[in-house]
Amino acid sequence: MQVWWIPPGAPPKRYGVEDLPGLLGRPPDEGFCWVDIPDCDERAAGVLGDVFGAHPLAVKDCREANPTGKVHAYPDHVLLVLHSPEPGQGGQAHLVELDQLVSNRYLVTVHGPCPSGVAHEIALQDSAAVLARMEAGRFSPPSPAHLSHAIVSSVARRQEDYVREIARKVGALERWALEGDMTKAEEALEEMFRVRHEVLTVATVASLNSTLYARVAALPRFVSADLHDVAEETRNQFEILLGMCEAEEKFLQGVLDFYQSRTATKMNMAMERLALITVVLLPVTAVASIYGMNVIVNADTNFPHLLVALTIMGMAALATILWSRRQGWW
Fold first, then answer.
1. Rg (Cα) of the chain, in Å, rounded?
2. I need a surface site. Which of 81, 166, 280, 329 has the fewest CB within 10 A?
């Protein structure tokens, strides 16, 4: 658990957990407090409840994994639960949770619980990036809401990078669909559907996050003025991300439709040729079957008789070919 004091126009200062009561009692014009919690264990839950006076339901949301985002307004703070997709193996996208308690006097960020297969450093990278900017003097947030906005903006930018990586995959799949080896149709289709699953995951998360901040923007009486001011801008970021996802999804669906149509056309052509071969050989098979049933038995080969049978077979096959040609089968 990291405790930072953010003074106006100056780099953040590190404090201990035991200093929190005194920091929260300072005048607002001296700055505000930021507490970054990598994992909400028993000690962190006690700090949230005892020091910050967080509602028990808010503490529960910070300790447990939430399947969807949420926003709850309390008397002196707002709880925001957001998610960020992280690429995994085989097209799987893991959802990394970020919980925030945003007040006029403080910001508490809680990371996790992290899903299996995701390193905890990944969940901390956005807050670490914003902290590095503040320590370098490139960013000085005037309020907890602006610091929260900076962290969430970092989350949105990483999701945009994820969509750009997906776009490169879609471009490669398009080239495969146009020029690829049709003998690997099953492998190509499986990869396309995996990439589409990634796009849908990012789009779903972006849509939920956008909805949450639209809710924040619609609660001016329950949220701070600063949080209300940045809520619309944050919502626009996720709306742009959602638009990117929808565009990639449509393009990938077009590639899928083209590849499936191309594969289906080749299969239909193969079926037509096989059906034509079957029809042509049908009269030949019928004549050969009559002889094969021992209806006509000869002690030895009668070549004139055999020649007549072969002639009948050939004429029947030729007539079938001409008939199928008139039908437009080939």
1. 34
2. 329
